[in-house]
Fold Cytochrome P450.
Amino acid sequence: MMERWGSFSLREFWQTAGITPFSILVDRAKMVTEWLVFLLSWIAFYGFYIRWTRRKQYDAARGMEGPKAYPLIGAGYKFLGKSTPEQLHQVLTEITSTYRSPAAVWLGQNLCLFLHKPEHAQAVLKSNDMLNRANFHRYFNVNKGILTQPAHTWKAHRKMLNLCFSPSILKGFMPTINQKSQVFVEQLVGCVGKPEQNIYLEVGKWALDTISATVLGLDYHLQKTDAAVAYLKNIDEYLTLVTKRMATAHQHPDLLYILTRDFRDFARTGKQFYSFSSMVMDSKKDFINPEVMADFKENPRKPRIFIDMVYQMAAADPDHLADEDIRDHLDEVIFAGHDAIATTMAYIMLMMAMHPEVQERVHQEVMSVCPDEGAEFSLEDCNKLTYTEMVCKETMRLFPVGPIIGRRATADVSCTAIRRFGDRTRTGSIRRTSCRRRPDQRHPYSFLPFSAGSRNCLGYRYAWLPMKIMLAYLARSYRLKTSLTMDQLTLQNYGIIILRIAQGCQVTVEQREGSKLGR
Ligand code: HEM
């Protein structure tokens, strides 16, 4: 009701006095109620929509074990405040050790199934409807290479890139792999007699040097210079930021992430991460000459080293394989290749240092196959190193560098114990294995260090060569020791897909009697 004093209304009088009149309060309450009704209807509608479009997933998850899920957040609270690699490892281990496979974990409104039974892993890895990587790979910000591509573009590329690790190519790598391992043991003389130290960086340099000189065909002599040190040191910071983002819900949307301080650090470390592939692409700039192009055209199925094959694919299909895509292919193989080999080798060395009797047996085997310190190992020699291979496998069983394989279903897939799960369901498969059974009684999918199925590790045949050869060179000339024990090791999970031992490769290095290295 408006009473007027001359030309001055009562409402204006109250407002001048700083008091809100009752009629205005009623107006506001009405407005707030209208907004609340709108918001609640919208939430109800959205909830109904989610429930309806994901009804298959809700059906599938019913009856499965898993942490309690709440509306909107699902079981996301499990990751609350758990954003460091150690904490992430603990959460993931807790989930897989508490709930039976397949365990249903709702992350927000997305259903993630954790499978850790060999039969379940087999059903997933053999299925043609499970060839897409899980969504969390997007946080690495590299998504057009062979490792991350969606299945429809990946298939043709993988068919070509399989040729890069054919027997004839691997045979051709042997002198370089030997030479790089020889450099490693020569450099290790510098660590003899020093107190216990983490030599992970040295192992990383060896791995990157070997990958560059073979898979990329470019020898930068990375163990003799510091050219790769910044790249290698940057990796953990980059992966820590990716891990934090994955475990922090409000950092998921790109629009919010770019406002954070972490984004600035991610951009900086990302630049360093891509610096290696930039150097490689610069080195290859003048590579595509008419002669090379003619060879690409005439021999499209000829086995070539990885980098040449990528350039051949780009020449054949320039519209779909631009410079950016070439860079992603290179970044992914450089990272997937060197990091997996370096971490696995570091753990094998640590395990040998912890188990002297095992180390002595490896030494004996190497000496029985190729005792001369200057002599190279052949492919036949490598095949004879059976005990050495068992030591590598046991280390990979205990510390698989890729502990989780994340895949996304594009159609219904059924496993023995999984009823059905539909589009957009994510599957995290944690590999836990048992060594108690006799090898012939074990399920073939109970030990998968390189995964299995058509999207398994591209470089698994190659990986065995540098690992066995470096280990043989090492065991021939050195003895490693450590004060660490198994229960002191701290496990970390980076970016959900990478397992690390926080202590790296903390050892003392002793030169064996009779070794002439550095003398
Ligand atoms: C000890 C050494 C290695 C281990 C334990 C390892 C393990 C793995 C695992 C578990 C995967 C995931 C497979 C899946 O999703 O099913 C993978 C993928 C891959 N690895 Fe390896 N890897 C190693 C060395 C290498 C090397 C040396 C290279 C290259 C030179 C390489 C290149 C790749 C690539 C390109 C993929 C993606 C394959 C695709 O998506 O088609 N890896 N690796």
